[in-house]
Amino acid sequence: MKKKLILVGLGIFILIFALICIFSSPAPYQLVINSKYIQTDIVVKNGLTFVPLDALKAMHLDFDWDPMNKKVVVTKPNSNKKLVLQVGSKIAMSGTKKIPIDAPVQLVHSRVVVPLRLIGEAFDAEVSWVGKIIVIRSDEYTIDHQTLNYSNDLVAARKIAISLPPNEQPSLQSSAKEPKHLLIFPEGEALRYYQSWGNHIWYYEIRNDVKHLIWEATELSTGEKIEEGKRPAQESNEIFFELAKGAEVVKYGRMNKADSPRLYGKLGNDIDFIAGMVHAIPDEARIDIVERKQN
């Protein structure tokens, strides 16, 4: 019995030492929660993924830390779910239910470190791996994710794509020259698009729920054009939505077909008014639905 306890203690010591070493050095993994990159340390050890608990605030979780007893209570607003974690314990409490944990909760550099699977399951979040990126979607975020990636409803998917916060901010400046908003999508697609205002144009691509600024350009009054990033190849068929400054009517249609009629529609009342520019295009079918990955 004594020998067994020594081995268990040694195993826990090795795990803690490994976590300290790994959390002290750069990790090759990334964490995305509800379309946002979270800067944090991630450890994958013996098939288990560990993260600092405070990195999961983007899941809309609240934490109440009891330093005296080294215990933390995790709750979610507007929910009756509650998880109680004890540092050093391999048992978590969800209400009156005991939940076995694959590895004990640890305190590393004053941060509570937990197995990621535990939090995902306790709060009904979807957790998936894409290469070395961990993608987490809270239960209330699932509908947007499903529509963005898997729905045939191009209007809804495009509105979500436009409303996503970009991971990178534009570095160039806009002016009031040609004061109109313009959106351009490849025909049948929602996950990449151009957006322009005045003399400034951006190109975005959405991967793993995150919107990336790939390229931008601006034209100076001298005629000189400044570019940042890699400009995408020209598309053969594109859809456009155009809104003049101060207008409430959107002009839209197929951009590269001279015989395609120009259509007009009222600006929608979306929270993001740019998303309100999007309308349905006759006979347009979606072609960029994401292939579902098996976890």
What would the keywords be for this entry?
single chain; 295 residues; alpha+beta; Copper Amine Oxidase, Chain A, domain 1; 2 domains; eight-stranded antiparallel sheet
Textual characterization of the structure:
Helices cover 16% and strands 37% of the residues. By secondary structure, the protein is α+β, with helices and mostly antiparallel strands. The protein folds into 2 domains: 30-142, Copper amine oxidase-like, N-terminal domain (Copper Amine Oxidase, Chain A, domain 1); 153-277, no CATH class. The strands form 5 sheets. The protein has an 8-stranded antiparallel sheet with strand order 18-17-16-15-14-19-20-21, with no helix packed on it. The protein has a 4-stranded mixed sheet with strand order 2-1-13-12, covered by helices on one side. It has a 4-stranded antiparallel sheet with strand order 3-4-11-10.
